Amino acid sequence: MLTVIGEALVDVVQRSSGTQAHVGGSPLNVAIGLARLDHPVQFIGRYGRDEYGEAVAAHLRSGSVLLPLGPDDLPTSVATALIDDAGAASYTFDLAWQLPDLTERLPLMLQATTLLHTGSIATMLAPGAAAVFAAVERAHPSATIGFDPNCRPSIITDADYARHQAEKFVALADVVKASDEDLEWLYPGVDPLDSARRWLSLGGSEGPALVVVTRGADGPWGVNADGEAQAPAPRVKVADTVGAGDSFMAALLSGIVDRGLDGAQNRGELRSLSAGSLRELLVHAAAAAAVTVSRAGANPPGRAELSAMELGSVNTSTAP
Predict the structure, then answer these.
(1) Which residue in 281, 155, 67 sits closest to 57, CA to CA?
(2) Whole-structure pTM over 0.70, yes or no?
(3) Cys staple from 125: which of 67, 97, 231, 243, with CB 3.0 to 4.6 Å?
(4) Averaged over 54-65, what is the pLDDT?
(5) Do residues 141 and 175 make contact, with C-beta atoms less than 8 angstroms apart?
């Protein structure tokens, strides 16, 4: 069983022509992405007993994601974007992030978990961030840990605090992904790749086996004990970039699970992964992101779609 813990929210886009609402949240998108790649997944997060909460639950269940936590009495978190006639957007957030009963229920929820992923607002926003860190500490002795800071400077404005939180989670994570924009905000004036190299050393023997940096059209780059690797971003017509990083993260974790490297008992083998194998993981994850950016919204690929994109990328790269 794979477990994703984090925020679920509803993105509400208001234009003069009308209002549209879409279920989102970075961890939720990763859970959907893993399920579409045929992995059993449970999502631990909160949502309210309201219309938006019903939409969150329906979206997850329709994606074959298990929901061990039911709705609570707080409103479902909402991110509202007001788009003016010139196309400029202004954002407001109404976020409730707390998991008061989680600690007592963790032993049962995590007993079959071989991989736990978290990140984004869930690891930064109090009071829920403390419960998420406790879940990571609980899972670490038995499960692979994935982490993506997916920074939101408009919500968590204190970069010093965000950096402290991110480093706490990195030190207990096995698989870390961050965008170059994340790292530039967390470490101003430092090359993002140098920041990733430093992250690889956090936590010592309990720290990351690999750290990956996504760089948009420049393609992903990664570092592990064996060296460094990079992969090109497949060339596609971009519809939008919503959810691309989450699709990348889901496929990166999926590639590790497909290799039988999930679970703490395989931590040593994951750490000894070759740079060549790291590059294969990057190619796989970049293909997933390419499928997502080729269509509107956070819409990650299924396994067949991902295989077709990878085959197309191989054919393109090897064509005379």
Answers:
(1) 67
(2) yes
(3) 97
(4) 97
(5) no
